[in-house]
Design goal:
43% strand; 149 residues; 1 helix; Immunoglobulin-like; alpha+beta
Length: 149
Amino acid sequence: MTLKKLSSAAIIAVAIAGALLTVTTLAALNVSQNLTSSGSIAAVNLGVYSDSACTVPLTSISWGSIAPGSTNPTTVYIKNTGNVAETLSMSAGSWNPSTSSNYLTLTWNKEGSSLNAGASTAAVLTLAVASSTGSLSSFTFTITITGTQ
């Protein structure tokens, strides 16, 4: 009879220990880090605006605080200020610190799109942050949006 009681007590002890380890492990996995950022925009043969009517020029984007492993999309409006159709492209450079480009990726939904003279379009720029960012806590970079004939 004592052996049965000991076995039941041992099983309960193991179950409690397992539950505590699970809670401890889950707590250790929930770590976050905030990133402060800013950026600037340069456009060639194009206007970049913050509003769909293309009346408020946009010269910088503040990405705000972005958690590792997340993405932050923002919508801008591109207007072809030239007199011929342009093929759109976008690049990011002048990363500060230079290692921030190892942890951050900028994409958009208009790469290779054609924009007629005088026309405008909404473009979504998305900044993706790696799940591990090392010691990166703030950064700046330049976004260049280009129209090619």
